Structures are given as structure tokens and as C-alpha cells.
Amino acid sequence: MRGHSSGSLYGAAAVFLFVLAVGAFITVAFATGALDSGIGRLAYKLRSRSFLLIIGIMVVFAIAGTVEGFAEETLGFYALLVPLTLALGYDRMTAVGAIIAGAGIGVLCSTVNPFATGTASSAADVPIGDGIVLRLAMLVVLTIVTVAYMLWYARRVKNDPEKSWSGWQPGDRDVKADDHEPDSLTKRQILVRWLVGLTFAFMIFAIIPWATVIKGPDAKSFGWELDWYFPELTALFLLARVRYDRYVKFIAPLMGILFVLICVFLAVAAWLG
To answer: Whole-angstrom Cα distance, residue 55 to residue 101?
Structure first.
């Protein structure tokens, strides 16, 4: 996997375009009604067991973080998970915290992460398996503690919305899970949901350095590895569009995303200065 080795400004531009492409992709998918309906159905099924969503998100991202160093790649998942947590009665911080804390704990306790443990082991000339039991124990304990804390925060916000750390945007508290099962999806909406799911699954497959994870930091890449990073992922989300005529509708909703992207550039500029 490539990092920002081509320069900080280039790296910031790559993140800028990636977030813009994901935002456009998700906005178009929402325009079809497929994601709204899918989120509504999932929220309905989890309405009495919503804590399972938080646990699932954090465990999955912790595993991805400890195995592959999954960190900035989580950017694409916020647009999917924030609406779902809102529908379950939580705030935006619940989704953001679950993603960041889950992936962060995984990276912190990198068991076989080739970009942290693998590189350090190679530099120290020791096997990557040295100390793996301790790292696994740390991963399990810290994941349990972090999940418990996020569940406590989520329950606190759900019972008393005024205690939200992130506050509420207009309309946030109007999004609730239905008391009855939502209408069935149309064939077109089902196809769009499959497209979204497969696109994100392919993204994960494309960025994982499989040979390094399986065989160690010095292993040669398998022939089928893609070794993608932000430029290729940006192209993926731009190509995985639903219909061209709906793309013209994504510009206005992306104004909020543009503010985040400007912050990325300002942060890099401040760091370089």
C-alpha cells in the first residue's frame, strides 16, 4: 500500500478527491431511495437491539486496524453509518466515535499490521510473531473497554439528547426507526444496494496488502493484489455511479463536505508552515 510518500500536498489532494468522490457516490445512491429504505429496514430490525450495531462496527474496524492498519480508509464509511445511528436515536458522535475508536484501538495494538509491527520487526531483525500474545491481549482488553465506553455514551445520549457532545443538526432528531416494517424495496433499489455493498467490499479488498499480511513484511505481492490507494479508490467511486443524470444533483449537498476538505488543506498548509 502506498502512503503519502509523494508529498504532503499531493497526499492532501488525494484525500480531498477521495472524500469528494465518496460523497458524490453516496449522495447519488441516496437519491435513488435505496439507502434510505435500507437504513430504515435495518433500523427497524435493530430498534430494540441497537447496541449490536455499535459493537459490530467497533469490532470489525478493530480487526481491520490490527491486521492492515485500517485508519484513513475509514473515511468512506461515515456517510453510511451516521444516518443509521441517527435513525436509532443516537447522535453523530456515536458513529464517528465507533469508527475512530474501533480502528484506532486496532492500529494501536497492531498484532500483524505490516505497516507498524511488520516494519518495526524488520528493522529490529526479530520475527513479527514476537510479542504477539501480549498484543492480542491488549487488543482484546482495550477493545472491550472502548466498546463499553461507547455503549455507555450512546445510551446516555439516547436517554438524554442534551448530553450529546456533537450537538444536533436540523432534522437529526426527526430521524427515527419506524414502528412498522418499511415497504419492500424495488428491484432498482435492491440493485443499488448491491452496488454500494460490492463497491465498499471491493475497496477493502483492493487496499489490503494480502501477501504482507499473510507472509510477513518482506513477502512479494501476490499477482492478484491491487495495492490501491486514494487515487485509484477515487476513480472506483466515480465509476461506480448509478445514473449519469442523477450526478448533476450531488453538487449542492456536497457543500458541507467541501468545508471538511478545505480543513484538510488548511491543516496541511499549517503543518508545512
So the answer is: 11
Give one DSSP letter per residue of 127-160, joined into a string.
-TTTTHHHHHHHHHHHHHHHHHHHHHHHHHHHH-
C-alpha cell at 4: 503519502
Amino acid identity, position 18:
F
Compute the distance between CA of residue 12 and CA of residue 268 in angstroms, rounded to an integer.
7
Q: Measuring CA to CA, how many Å separate 170 from each of 27, 86, 174, 212?
A: 18, 12, 8, 46
Q: Give the model's pLDDT for residue 258.
A: 62
Question: Dihedrals φ, ψ of 131, to 5°?
Answer: 80, 10
Structure confidence at residue 145 (pLDDT): 97
pLDDT at residue 253 greater than cutoff 70: no
- Burial bucket for residue 59 (CB in 10 Å: 0-12, 13-18, 19+): middle
According to the per-residue pLDDT averaged within each range, which of 33-47, 124-138, 259-273 is highest? Answer: 124-138
Burial of 254 (0-12, 13-18, 19+ CB in 10 A): middle
Q: Which residue has cell 435500507?
A: 38
Q: With CA atoms as reference, report the closest residue to 70 among 118, 36, 97, 108.
A: 108
Closest-CA residue to 233 (of 24, 6, 8, 9): 24
CB 71 within 8 A of CB 115: no
81's grid cell: 453509518
Please report the pLDDT score of residue 132 as a whole number.
Answer: 81
